[in-house]
Amino acid sequence: MAGFKKTTHLLFLVILTMGCTTMNKTVNKMFDKVDVVAADKISEEDLKPLPQVVQNYLRFTNIIGKEKIKTVRLKQGGGFRLKPEDEFKTLKAVQYFNLEAMEFIWQGKVSVITATDRFLNGKGDMTVKLLGFIKIASAEGPEVNQGEVVRFLAEGVWFPSVFLNDYIRWQALDERSAKATITLGDFSVSATFHFNKKNQVEKITTKRYMEKDGRFELEDWEIRIVEYSSFNDVFIPRKSEVVWKLDDGDFCWYKPEIYTIEYNIAAVYE
């Protein structure tokens, strides 16, 4: 019996290692596309084309004088649940971004379940696996593409210089809100950023496709900022809440918390 347990444990470690190796190869391939050495520094002049409320926000983040962010790697955790009646379970994840190509890879783990969320080469996909190699769910297609671009746009608050990139277009709505839009081919995705009197983003609202019993339905989706912190001398949300705004009430399904985040380090975590 002891030998069987040892063999099972070794097999489990081999499977996890194989999964990590595959992801690392994909991340390295994504990072090969970008030159982080030639990152220009951000100036006040760079902010001028943006709506005033967005300019004020970017000044708050303290990015002026710093290098423009081209790549991101981060570790996060927080509570996650699939249904409103469920208890939150602890989720831990790593995520990598290439902001020049507008790509990302996210991988989160809850117990023996691993979920991977990606947007690469203009296409998104989601995969859920048991023990890192047994596929139990997957999705791709136009609705997934829309959802991944929405996610990328909203998560820009973690690396705010992305809002200076040409692929994001801004429109002022009023003194405390502005709409950001990304257009890819024949579809566009927009989100409204709501700012408080401290010039912080306090809420992001948009619509996103939600999977319901194998079908996708467009629902109201919201991110609420709970707490800001300084990482790399840049002020970003440390804690947030991700909420579906449904007809029968709000469903908060994820409470992400940033543990660590690094800019312009084009390498996977060891």
UniProtKB/TrEMBL annotation:
It comes from the Bacteria. InterPro entries: DUF6544 (IPR046674). It holds the Pfam family DUF6544. This is DUF4292 domain-containing protein. It comes from Caldithrix abyssi.
